[in-house]
Amino acid sequence: MAIREILTVPDPRLKEVSKPVAGLVTDEHRALMDDMLETMYAAPGIGLAAIQIGVPLRIIVMDLSKEGEERAPRCFVNPEILEMAGENKPYEEGCLSVPDIFDEVERPARCRLRYLDYNGNPVEEWAEDLYAVCIQHEMDHLEGTLFIDYLSRLKRQRAVDKVKKAKLRAIREDAN
Ligand code: GNR
Ligand code: NI
């Protein structure tokens, strides 16, 4: 297992559309999911899409357990949203690829999912609350969409500029 580097804006790879996993879920995919979980826990974050570590495959990991609770890792291969339900609900979102930026995004409150789990077994279930928010945020990554794409152009540009500046500052401090 290894912690991988998380891509941040404006890295063009974050705009790529990720490709479905073809055929079975293999040990190689599981090794990738292990790395993604380790990277997500270290960040720390509650979800991660493969493209955030530069791998353009339709794979997501997530853990919505609270601090002090036992870890509850979840893996999603080729996830699909079958149906959305409920009113749109606002939630203050963040993203490891847009560090230290938080803003409200509205998404449908519930969605029905189909995906393959870590072992390649098919699952169908409803997601709601934070699970619904997070899976929609992660599935957007698979389409090359970031939560800041839902904000005004001004807010989005400010967010990207802030991340760029923070990166430059970190590089400068590293040199000293
Ligand atoms: O860690 C994360 N927290 C979060 C908070 C609100 C809505 C979505 C998220 S996902 C984010 C990790 C991430 O960037 N996943 O792509
Ligand atoms: Ni994200």
Q: Secondary structure elements and their pairing?
A:
Blueprint: H1 27-42, E1 47-49, E2 59-62, E3 74-93, E4 103-116, E5 122-128, H2 129-142, H3 153-175
Antiparallel strand pairs: 1-2, 2-3, 3-4, 4-5
The structure holds ligand GNR and nickel (II) ion (NI).
Nickel (II) ion is lined by residues 95-97, 137, 141.
Question: What's the overall average pLDDT, rounded?
Answer: 98
**Share of helix among residues?**
25-40%
Q: Work out the helix count.
A: 3
Please indicate the count of domains: 1
Radius of gyration: 16 Å
Assigned CATH class: Alpha Beta
Shape summary: globular
Give the strand order, joined by hyphens, for the main sheet: 1-2-3-4-5
Order of helices and strands: HEEEEEHH
| Major beta-sheet overview | 5 strands, antiparallel
CATH superfamily membership: Peptide deformylase
- The assigned structural class equals alpha+beta
The CATH topology assignment is Peptide Deformylase
Which hetero ligands occur in this complex? Answer: ligand GNR, nickel (II) ion
- Low-confidence stretches at least 5 residues in length (pLDDT < 50)? none
CATH architecture descriptor: Alpha-Beta Complex
Number of strands: 5
